Write the structure tokens for this entry.
Amino acid sequence: MSLKSAAAQITFRPKLFDCLIGYDKAQFGRDVGAGITVGVLALPLAMAFAIASGVSPAAGIWTAIVAGLLISVLGGSKVQIGGPTGAFIPIIYGIVAAHGFGNLLLATMLAGAFLLAMGIFRMGQLIRFIPVSVVIGFTNGIAVVIFMAQIKDFLGLQIASLPPEFFAKIETLARSLSLIHLPTLALSCASLFFLLVYNRVAAREGFALLRRAPGPLAVLVLATATVALFDLHEYGIETIGSRFGGIPQGLPPITLPSLSLDTVGKLISPAIAIALLGAIESLLSARVADGSIDDKHDPDQELMAQGIANLVAPIFGGFAATGAIARTATNVRSGGRTPIAGVIHVFVLLLIVLALAPLASHIPLATLSAIVVLVAVNMGEWHEFKALRRFSNDYRAILLSTFIVTVIFDLTVAIELGMVLSCLAFIYRMSRLTRIERLPLKQHERNPDFLKPDGSARIAAWRFYGSLFFGAVNKLEVLLDPREEFPDVLIFDMQHLVQLDTTGLDGLCKILDRLEKQGSGGLVLCGLSRQPASLMYRAGFIDRLGEENLADNLSAALTRAETLLNRSYFQQIAALPE
């Protein structure tokens, strides 16, 4: 698709436009209730994900506000809630450690440009081509990386910063285990236990009121009040105030990251990782939500909204954002059915920041760490490891390779490796399905008129099955072996050949070359389906073969083969000296 044709086909229509048609007070009331619920849930998650990513909690909040607003207003889903997510933690942490926060903002904007381009060029459906084995592998790998990153704050270890490399991180944590801060560990465990019990009780019948106040918010309020009332700062428990100096009260300054060609080159790979992960998570979240509200999202519009959100959020000090599955599900369960609920959730967050920011100084980092630990545990699909024995070796190798590389090396490398392994496995399976079988022609094989002096057949027929492509072209070797006697006329029955590529066509050209070189009758094709016929016409193969050598079925092909054989015989007689 050219740039001109792509631009002509762009349809920018957010779901908000459709939802405003027939919008009434009753739905507005439900959207307000859902927006308030999601807003109070988003606050602790935004701060926790930001701190886990190595940036300030304020950056997480402004990411949720700015990106969340744009994703709701411009998105292709009615109920998608956008903001920072746990899946981004390993990528963001690595970028900050290697390049600094300023370059994180630039990488986020580059990722936004990639996402916007993906939406413009209608690549929303292509994201679904990523195999489930790759998705499960990197999802579980991300969960492990997030969990490991929280060990420091969960145990209260006095480490300036964890190295981004896996083995260096393990070594640093192992050396510091003797320095566990017991008051911090006690608060972390108490917060985690409270979350587990709270979520289980809230899920029971008769506890609908608890579901109105999400577990992360409840534990955050309780732990913050405990720290403030009992002055637990004296026991060395770190808070947002002690590490970050609190959260600024008011709007953030508008800044643009510095731009240089050298820096952009270094950030291309991380930006691609952010864009890919953001596209996958947002479209997965939207697809899950579709099943809950009986609707269908627009994947290309959603990608364009995600792109714009990631382009704009860094201007306000925010970083990478995408559709958040947990917050979107909470929105649906709370009655949200239009993007207005997402807009309300943003204004709830904004109101909290402007009015209650000073209170955030008392929020203990141990409690935020417990929230992220539970998110990491819940986001992993651990049961898939137990189910591996039911699947093929290819599936196991792809999933485990993606998982291990995500944990040890990098998410970008893991996705690349997973996709390469998936493609190789697919090529191998498709090549196994391709068959070329010789058809018996008894009436010709027993007739002396159709036999060569050495007794071999002058006419041979072969039937093709499957796809003749670069991964299966070696199946033609049986016909191209120079040691084997070649018939004068070949018939290829292609009614079961569903696909042909240029490499497969090149193999057929070599067979035709050999027939022409030996001066025999030629090649007859029958039963051509649409795609192979289209390629043969476009490549000029049919012009070279001659349309008279195309037949509808095997019987007509045999008749044509006999004609070619007789013509070849008389030509050879005419060429003899008198």
Q: What stands out?
A: The chain has two domains: 29-378, 434-574. The first helix runs from residue 3 to 8. The chain has a mean pLDDT of 89. Residues 29-378 form one domain.
